[in-house]
Amino acid sequence: MSKNVLVIGSGGREHALCWKLSNSPLVKHIFCAPGSVGISSNIKVESVDLSLKDFPAIATWCKEKDIDLVVVGPEDPLANGIVDALIPHGIKCFGPTKAGAQIEANKDWAKKFMTKYQIPTARYQSFSDANAAKEFIKNASYPALVVKASGLAAGKGVVVASSKEEACAAVDEILTDAKYGVAGQTVVVEELLEGDEVSVLAFTDGETVAMMPPAQDHKRIGDGDTGPNTGGMGAYCPCPLITPEQLADVKEQVLQRAVDGLKAEGIKYVGVLYAGMMVTKSGPMTLEFNCRFGDPETQVLMMLLESDLYTIMRACVDGTLKQVQVKWETENCAVGVVIASKGYPETSTKGCVISGLSQVQTRPNVVVFHSGVARGANDSLVTAGGRVLLVAAKRGSLRTAASVATSAAAAIDFPGAQYRKDIAHKAFSNSLAHAE
Ligand code: AMP
Ligand code: GLY
What we know:
The protein is α+β, with helices and mostly antiparallel strands. It folds into 3 domains: 95 residues, Rossmann fold, CATH 3.40.50; 57 residues, Dna Ligase, domain 1; 233 residues, D-amino Acid Aminotransferase, Chain A, domain 1 (2-Layer Sandwich), CATH 3.30.470.20. It is 31% helix and 26% strand. The protein has 14 helices and 22 strands. The strands form 6 sheets. A 5-stranded parallel sheet has the order 3-2-1-4-5, with helices on both faces. Strands 12-15-18-22-19 form a 5-stranded antiparallel sheet.
């Protein structure tokens, strides 16, 4: 019997999850709350208007609609306890409880946890007193430091400081000026790590860890990693900047250790555990954990997932992941290029008519995932956010996939559209690259 699924969220990540779930013969209908125009363009998917603050109302709605599985995309509802609220009603949820989500939502807790379970990470200290933090920075033996608000600050709240003065200014901003409100009541000050950043995600049922292929995000707005940070301007997968041996270490020393550690803390962690790794000269080090799928990594990962996503998610929820084979397309690579609106990341321009979409969507193995797109006049699609779309292409090499995705991005237009022309290029120039 095929099932009804509710996906929580509205971004490109959730679009990719709905797209992949819709390919499952086991899934009858997908609701997405709040969803988007792009998400519900699929005949199996419907956007629904549910308040993400009212968990009891979501539980009642799930019962009415006979929802078999709830998949939570973003971190905020997880950190606010959506899973804890739904489970007592007998609703199955793919995503961790509030206690599990602390691994992302409370960096101070996450650093203590990593230290306790010997998960490789940068040296650090936490502070809630600005003077103590600045004193520590002045005396720190490591010259370059990163200052982080401990709580969830909408992807912001991390300052990679190039001098001790800059690090002290960041402490003042976060602790004294309360720039991020309660999220900044504690700061984590840590050693700056150098290397390539790689996102290693895994499915887990709280015991078994099934790794996804490594992916890389591109955080800066400009080509060559220049300009301000963004929510992510593109991603590719697999990322050759981490070796198979290093990946095996990440599985054993980071992901499995974290899941076992969480279990030892009394937390059964179900869902995706995302390890943000820095591949340093002395090996991979953990920058952060996220308690969910990454955006834009998910868009490229879903292009390469061969197995049925619903089956994997149900196995995570049912504690049977060990019995499921999670297969990826090993002969293919996926590259995703984000198209952002004018002024992003400082501002965004809304209401610009988007052209070229239908032409691009007919290209083989090219998929457009919507982030900030709304319905305009006369059935047009218009921009409705900073990051507007991601165009993903799947091909036999990263170089070809990058070239196809980038030319597809060039064919989509609206006034002020910006996209990077070098997504995945780092992978070709690296001597380790098995990207050809
Ligand atoms: P986080 O949310 O902790 O991952 O930090 C956001 C971004 O800041 C990361 O993706 C890195 O680019 C950067 N970052 C965080 N911690 C460090 C560190 N210890 N060394 C260098 N860069 C870092
Ligand atoms: N791609 C970074 C994140 O999802 O947090």
